[in-house]
Amino acid sequence: MTRHWEIAAWLLCGWICGCASGCDNGPLPAPKARASTSAAPLYVPPPPEGCARTGSLEAVEADPTCVTAHSDDTTMRDAMKPLVFELASDAPVVTAGGQVILRLTITNSASAEVALLLDMQPPSTGSRPDWSRLAGVPEPKPAASGMPMPEGYRLVMPVRTLDTHDHGVDGLPVTAAPTGSTPVTRTLRVRLRPGGKLTQIFTWWALRIPAPGPITRDDAGHRFVPKTAPVPLSTGEYVINVELPLHGISSPETVVSTRVRVERADAAP
């Protein structure tokens, strides 16, 4: 019996010593503090000026986000290098007095984005065809005193038709630009992605406008303003020019052209 107690005491002593030796290792090290996740924010550059668009130029014209306050003439000249300007008609032959649809396309052929700068003009600035001399067009009414004129900024793209001798076929008088005023243009900055296209549709009629007679006055001081009317074009080949409002670029670099042949109505198949 005494032997059994000795064995039990020996086992109990070993268990107590084992526990004590495990406690001698000291407390576990405290976990390292996590590094702070807050850091100074990275610099985010401001978005580029202008708008990133493709499609109709009319939609670009109506988008106020495309207007830019900074315009560099050298930017547009550099941007013109990868841009492809094309004017095409839906039919190469048209009967005299008929119409064709012209499509202007501006394509970015580069592998990077290109900024296209276009100038918009306010109304009643610069020289314009005097459409009041055309029969059926009413005389323009003067604006009421003190009434503000609507802004109506537009992309002005004159269309001109030349005969085989490079003479214009229209003799409509041109109104002079207002004196003593400097037109205030608005510049559009359109960021055109690689392969992106901008388009504009024109309707061209195979007509010419003869020059009207001179304005005269009779002995009583009455003023007579003769008007003119369009007539069908003669048979032949004509060049159609469209002048683009490219910022900082002047003619002839701003002109795109196409050719159309006019035939008599009785010669059509």
What's the layout of helices and strands?
Blueprint lengths: L1 H22 L27 E2 L2 E2 H5 L5 E2 L4 H7 L3 E7 L3 E3 L3 E10 L5 E7 L7 E2 L29 E4 L11 E2 L10 E7 L4 E9 L1 E2 L7 E2 L5 E2 L6 E2 L3 E8 L11 E9 L6
Parallel strand pairs: 1-11, 2-12, 5-18
Antiparallel strand pairs: 3-11, 4-6, 6-12, 7-11, 8-10, 9-17, 13-16, 14-15, 17-18
Would you give an account of this structure?
The protein has one domain: Sandwich (Immunoglobulin-like). The protein is built from three helices and 18 strands. It has helices at residues 2-23, 57-61, 73-79, and strands spanning 51-52, 55-56, 67-68, 83-89, 93-95, 99-108, 114-120, 128-129, 159-162, 174-175, 186-192, 197-205, 207-208, 216-217, 223-224, 231-232, 236-243, 255-263. Strands 1, 3, 7 and 11 form a four-stranded mixed β-sheet that branches. A four-stranded mixed β-sheet has the order 2-12-6-4. A four-stranded mixed β-sheet has the order 5-18-17-9, with no helix packed on it. Strand 14 (216-217) and strand 15 form a beta hairpin. The radius of gyration is 39 Å and the shape is globular. The termini are far apart.
Label this structure with key terms.
269 residues, alpha+beta, Immunoglobulin-like, four-stranded mixed beta sheet, 3 helices
Offer a concise description of the structure:
13% of the residues lie in helices and 30% in strands.
**Main β sheet profile:** 4 strands, mixed
Radius of gyration: 39 Å
- CATH-defined superfamily: Intracellular proteinase inhibitor BsuPI
Order of helices and strands: HEEHEHEEEEEEEEEEEEEEE
CATH topology (fold) name: Immunoglobulin-like
Q: Tell me the strand percentage band.
A: 25-35%
Question: What structural class results from the helix and strand content?
Answer: alpha+beta
Estimate nothing, just give the exact number of structural domains: 1
Shape: globular
From the N-terminal CA to the C-terminal CA, the straight-line distance is 135 Å
Give me the count of strands: 18
Helical fraction equals 10-25%
The CATH class designation is Mainly Beta
How does CATH name the architecture?
Sandwich
Mean pLDDT: 81
Q: Please tally the helical runs, counting DSSP H or I stretches of 4 or more residues.
A: 3
Low-confidence stretches: 19-24, 143-150
